[in-house]
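Final report, results section. Input specification for complex C-07:
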Amino acid sequence: MKTTYSVKLVLLLTLALNIVSPVPAQGPTPAVAELGQLNLMPMPATVELQPGRLAITDKFSVATKGYADDRLRTNIARMTRRLAGRTVTTLSLDLAAAESSATLVVQCERGGSSIPSLNEDESYSLEITDQQARLVASTVVGAMRGLETFLQLVQGDREGYYLPGVRIHDQPRFAWRGLLIDIGRHYQPPEVLKRNLDAMAAVKLNVFHWHLTEDQGFRVESKKFPKLHLLGSDGLYYTQDQVREIIAYATERGIRVMPEFDIPGHSTSWLVGYPELGSAPGSYKIERAAGIFEPALDPTRDQIYKFLDGFLGEMAALFPDAYMHIGGDENEGKQWDRNPQIQAFMKQKGIKDNHALQAYFNQQVLKILQKHGKKMIGWEEILHPDLPRDAVIHSWRGPASLAEAAKKGYNGILSAGYYIDLIYPASQHYVADPLPDGNAMTAEETKHVMGGEATMWGEWVSPETIDSRIWPRTAAIAERLWSPRNVTDIADMYRRLAVISHQLEELGLTHERNYPVLLRRLANSDHIGPLRTLASLVEPVKEYRRYQMRPQTMLSPLTGLVDAARPDSEAARQFAAMVEGLLSDAPRFQLYRSDIRDSFKIWRDAGIALDPMIERAPGLQEARPLAKNLADVSAAGLEAINYLSTGTAAPTQWRDLQLSKLDEAAKPKAALELVVVPSVRKLIIAAAEPRK
Amino acid sequence: MKTTYSVKLVLLLTLALNIVSPVPAQGPTPAVAELGQLNLMPMPATVELQPGRLAITDKFSVATKGYADDRLRTNIARMTRRLAGRTVTTLSLDLAAAESSATLVVQCERGGSSIPSLNEDESYSLEITDQQARLVASTVVGAMRGLETFLQLVQGDREGYYLPGVRIHDQPRFAWRGLLIDIGRHYQPPEVLKRNLDAMAAVKLNVFHWHLTEDQGFRVESKKFPKLHLLGSDGLYYTQDQVREIIAYATERGIRVMPEFDIPGHSTSWLVGYPELGSAPGSYKIERAAGIFEPALDPTRDQIYKFLDGFLGEMAALFPDAYMHIGGDENEGKQWDRNPQIQAFMKQKGIKDNHALQAYFNQQVLKILQKHGKKMIGWEEILHPDLPRDAVIHSWRGPASLAEAAKKGYNGILSAGYYIDLIYPASQHYVADPLPDGNAMTAEETKHVMGGEATMWGEWVSPETIDSRIWPRTAAIAERLWSPRNVTDIADMYRRLAVISHQLEELGLTHERNYPVLLRRLANSDHIGPLRTLASLVEPVKEYRRYQMRPQTMLSPLTGLVDAARPDSEAARQFAAMVEGLLSDAPRFQLYRSDIRDSFKIWRDAGIALDPMIERAPGLQEARPLAKNLADVSAAGLEAINYLSTGTAAPTQWRDLQLSKLDEAAKPKAALELVVVPSVRKLIIAAAEPRK
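Structure output:
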C-alpha cells in the first residue's frame, strides 16, 4: 500500500450541494489530481498519483504489445466504444499501427485460461502520463480488469476529457467474487443476465452463480429429461443454446459461470415431470408461494442416482466451469420422516438422522460430480464429518460456519452479509468481511476463505425491477471482495458508488431508468412529482417481512409502490447528513436549517398532492397511510425547526405528542418504511432539550 | 359511424394543468362515461357508450367460447398479465371454468391464417356491461386487436379499476399497416425488435417491414452465401434461428414479417464478400457514411440471377410472408454508366436508359420471386411500363405515385408522409392520408391503395435511442391507417397519444426512460435539471440536415444532445398553447400570464446553470450557444410579458432588437432547433402592437 485511502471529504457539503461529480466546476486543474477525485470502484490495491494528464481526443487509439488474441481485441473494441459514447467522440475501432502513436498500450504476457478459472491471474498495472497510458497484465483477464479501471479514470473539464496521471498496481484480495442470480422464483430473460454480466465485469466480479432450479421453476433445458423444463418452468427456461450464449458472453468478460442445481430440497419443480424422484407420492405442481417446502428427492433409491448421473452429466458437459453447486440448503426432511421405506433404509444403514441422510446423499452426488470432472460446492448445511475435503462450503448463515469449515480444512465462500434481497443499505454489506476482525483463524486457515458472493434471491424481482435490487449496492460488495481490507471509508464509498451507478447505465442497466416507469404506471400519468417524493423517502421492509406484510404469489405482478421503491434511500441518507450538520451546529442550529425546512415543505406538499393522485390510481390505495405519515412527519419537523430557530425549548408535552406520531409513522405500511423518521426524531428531541 | 369524434376538449386548460390522465380527480363517476374520456388509439370504427361499468378485481377471469387455440390462449394470458401489472392485482392466468362466471368472454369463430396475411379478417366487436365484457371476432387476430382495445379501456377511480360501459364495432380502414425498421445502417438486437413488435401490436399495426440489407450492413445469415453476412456486417447480423424467433414472436401478435433485400442499389455490403456481383471491379468495403452510393449489382450477367435465385430462394424459405420487398430505390446507375460491358448489353438489347435497365433487372427478379412463391414489392422507382401487374408499388416520394400506380392497376402502399426519421411532429404525419382529400382516383382505383408504413430509417438511431424516434409518433400513424378517415382531431390525438405513450412503457419500450439516461451520461451526473429543461425545448433539425450540420459516420456514438433530444417537443407544444391562450385574452393578457412568466424564469435559470455543467462535461460544449439562446429568449420573453402586463405597447425599436435576437436563436446549433422561438416571437410582436 503506497497511499492511504482515508481521504477526508467534506461529506456534508457534498451531500447538501447534491454534487455527485467530484471534479470542481471551476478553477484551474491541479497539476496533480487528488485521490478524493478519483471515482474508482473497486479501489485498486495501490494508487499513486503523478503529474500530468492524458487527453482523450478523436485521435485516441490503442496498441497491443506482446500477446494478443480475439478476446483481448474484442475487449479493447468494447472499451473504445464505451469511451466514444461517454465522450461523444468518434473513435476509430482499429488498433494503432505503432505502439508509439497509441494513446493506450495494452501489454499482455499470455492468454490465461480460455475458460475463466479460479486460479486466473487478474493482476494488472496501469501507468498514465501526459504522453501515454500503459496497461500491463499477465493475462487477458488481467488486462480486462485494467481496461475497466482505465474507463473509470476518465474525467472532463473545460479543456476536454482526460485521464489524470496515475500509477496503479492492482490485484484482487479474493479470487472468488460472485453474484448469484436466482431465476428459479422469477425467470429473467437472457438480456437481463447479459446486462448484469456487463455490470459485473465493470466492478471486477468474476463468478456468475446461476441458481437454475427452485421449487418455483426448473429453468434449463435437459435433452435427456425434457419433462424437467417442459413441465417445471411454465415455458420459461433457457435453451442449451441460450446457456452456451450466456457462457460465451461471460467468458468474453472473464467471468466464470457456475450452475446450481439445488437438491435434495428446493426441488418441487423437478418432481412435476418426474414425481417418481420424490420422497412422497405425486402428483406435484409448480410451487407458487415463497418459503421452504417439503418436497425432496428420495436419497434411498438407486434410480435417483442413475437419474442424477444422467442429468448432472448432461449439465457437466454444458457448463465448462470446474465447480458445480448442488445447493443442499433448507431441506427439513419432512417427506423423509413420513416415508416408511426411507425410515427403513436409515435403520438398515445406521443413518441416525436426516442430516446424516443428506450427507449420505451428498456423498453419492459427489461421486457423480467427480465422475463428470466437477468439484462440488454446496450451502453450509452440507458440512458433515463424512464430507470429503475437496468439497467447498458456501456460508449463508454467517462467517462462523466459514471459519469452522476452514478449521476442518474445507475451502469456503461467504454470502452471509451479502444477501442483497434483504434490502439493507450498501454500508451494511460493505462492512461484512469474509475474514472479519478478530476472527480466530490461523494464517493457514484463512487461505481456505476464497471470497464471497452477493445473492439476488428471486422471490420479488421482475425483469423490470431486478437491476434496482442488485445495483448499485453490489458494487460496494465487489469492492469488499477485491480491494485491500483497509478500504473502509463509508462516506467515500457512497461518493464513488453514485458515480459508478450512473456509469452502469451505459451498459443498459435499468436500476435508475425503470424507477420513474414504475411510478408512471402506478400514477397512470406522466406527472409523478409527489409520488416520486414519497417513493424516494421509503424503503421496502427488511429481511423477509415483505411476504408477511403483503402476501403475494410468484404469479403476482411486481408493479406496486414496494417494487418501485428502492433499497438504501439516497434522499434519506442526504437528509440524515443535513440533520447531523444542523445538530452539530448547536446552539445556533443554522447549518442546513433552510435546506431542511425546504425539504419538509416539499414533503408536506407531496403528502397533500398525493390524495387526488391516489383517487385516480387504485393501485396506490395502499400508499394512503404513508402519504398521511409523510404529512405528519413534515408538520412535526417544521415545528421542530421553528423551535430550534427561536432558541426556546419546545414543551415536553409537545415532544411526547410528536414522538408518538413518529412512532406511528415508523410502522411499516404497504411493506414500506418511511426511513427519514429517525432523523426527524432527532430534531424533535433536540428541539425540546433545554438550551444552555 | 354511430358517434362523432369531434369531442370538444378544453385543450388549453388540459395543457396548462399538465393533466394527462383524463379521468376527473374528484366528483361522482358519471353514469355514462364521456367519449372524451376514452384513451383509445387507434380509435375504433364505431364506439357507443352505454351505462354501467365493469369492475376489475382479483376475481377477474376470461373464458373462451367457440374456437380457441394456443395463440388465442397465449394472447389472453399476456393481456391478463399486463392487466395485473397495471392494476397491481394478482390475477389468475387460468381460463374461467364457465362462461357465465367470466369477466371477459372471448368468442372466436375460427383461427384465421396461421401465417399472418394481408387478407386476414381483423374485425371484432366488444360490448361491456356491468356484468361482463364480450369480445366477438371472426379470427384469432381479430380477437387480439379487441384485447388491445379492452386493455386501453381500463380506467381507475376511488372505487377501483374498471372499464366503462361501451359497445364497439371495429375493423381497419386499410389492410396494410406497417413499420419499417432499417437495421442496415445501425444493427438493432432482437430484443429491440421484440419490444417494438409488442408496441406495434398495442396500436394494431400488422406489418413489420424488416429492411435487412443496406450499403452499411448485410444483416441476415445466409447459409448458401455466408460471406454476405460474415464480411458484410461487422458480425452484427441475425442468425436464421433468430429470424425464426422474431417471426414467431410477430406471428403470435398477428403481425406479418416482410423482409427487404434492397437491390440493385444500396448493395455495397453484398459486394464486400462477393465483389463479382458488382458493376465495377472490387474490392468493396462496408460503407460508413450516410447517403446514396454508387455500388450496384450488375444486371447484365446471368451469374447475378443465379446468385439471386439461390439467395432469394433461401430467404423465401426462411420468411413465410407472401411478399418480398426488393427495394429498388435510389440507384443512380453511375457504375452502370461507366461499365462498357453493361453499355454494350443495353445497346444490344435495345434498353434505352438506366431506368429501363433496372426494369429489365426487376423482371428477372420477379421471375425468381414467382418461382419461389413470393409476390414482389418495391419502392416506387420500380414502376415502369414493363412491370407486371401483380407487383406492388411502395410510394416514398408522395401519394401521386400511388395514384399513378393505382390508375395503371397496381396495388400500392404509402410511406411518403410517414418518414418518422425526418423528425416532424406527430400532427404532421397524422394528416398524411393514403387517400388524400381531392384525390382524383375512381372508387375502383382506391381499392389498389392497401395502406402504408412508417419508416424508421437507421442512420442516426442506436438501441438506446431508436424507440424515441419511433414512439409515440408512430401510434398516430397507426391511427391514420386503422381508424375512419374523419378521425382527425389533432388536439384529441395528442391527448390520447400521451396516455398510450406511457402505456407502451409496460411493454419495455424505452422512449421515455432512456431520455434521462442520455442526459445523465452527457452531464456525468445525476443532477440534470437545467440540461433537461434545455433538452425539452429543442428538437433535432428536420429532414436530413443533421448529417450536414454535424457529420458523423455509422461508427460514431449516438450519445450527444441531438440524440437525447426528441421529436415533437411536448413542452414546446404546451408553451405554444399557453401563448395562444394569453394572446386570445387581449387586451387583458392575463390568461396563463403567470405560467408563461414562470416558464421564462425556469428557462433563464437553466441557461445560467448550464454554464458550469458544460465546464465539467466537454461532450456538452456544442450546447453552449443553445444555452445562450435560451437565456436570450427568456429575457426577451420576460420583457414582452412585462409590456403586455402594463398595457403600454413596447417601442418598435425594442421589438426589432428582440426579433433579431430571436432570428439568431432560431438558427440551429449542434443540429438542434430551439422550437419555442415562434411562440416567443408572437409575444414580442403582440407586445409592440398599439393597444386599443
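The first strand of chain B starts at residue 46 and ends at 56. DSSP finds 26 helices and 19 strands in chain B. This concludes the modelling results for the funded period.
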